[in-house]
Specification:
The protein has about 110 residues and is α+β, with helices and mostly antiparallel strands. It has one domain: 2-Layer Sandwich (Beta Polymerase, domain 2). It has 4 helices and 5 strands. A 5-stranded mixed beta sheet has the order 1-2-5-4-3. A hairpin with a 6-residue loop joins strand 3 and strand 4.
Length: about 110
């Protein structure tokens, strides 16, 4: 699946689950971890876990395979590894604390 199509599927899944403040940051040529980071917020730990679980399940259903999900036990910050795209879903105060947008912003 082309990266742009995968990114569209990820964004649609996040929007469908009412994720808030969705931000996409291109890291192409700036990081060996991934090409794109997607950051979103959930209203509660349960909402964060649900958003990540639904995303992983939807990607599997479209043939993208089982996606590694990290942090679902806590629900403060869940990472879904989609290969060239990494999705971070936070509770708002945890997102503010780690400030990934600030870390990866273009200066």
């Amino acid at each position: 699946m082309p990266q742009s199509a995968l990114l569209d599927r990820i964004t649609t899944s996040l929007e469908d689950d009412k994720a808030e403040d969705i931000v996409t940051i291109s890291l192409a040529g700036r990081s060996s971890l991934c090409d794109v980071v997607v950051i979103a917020s959930g209203r509660s730990t349960r909402h964060v876990m649900s958003i990540a679980d639904h995303l992983a399940r939807r990607l599997k259903d479209i043939g993208y395979g089982t996606r590694p999900v990290t942090g679902a036990g806590q629900g403060d910050w869940v990472l879904v590894d989609c290969g060239d795209i990494i999705v971070h879903v936070f509770r708002p105060e945890v997102r503010d604390y780690y400030d990934l947008e600030g870390m990866w912003s273009v200066q």
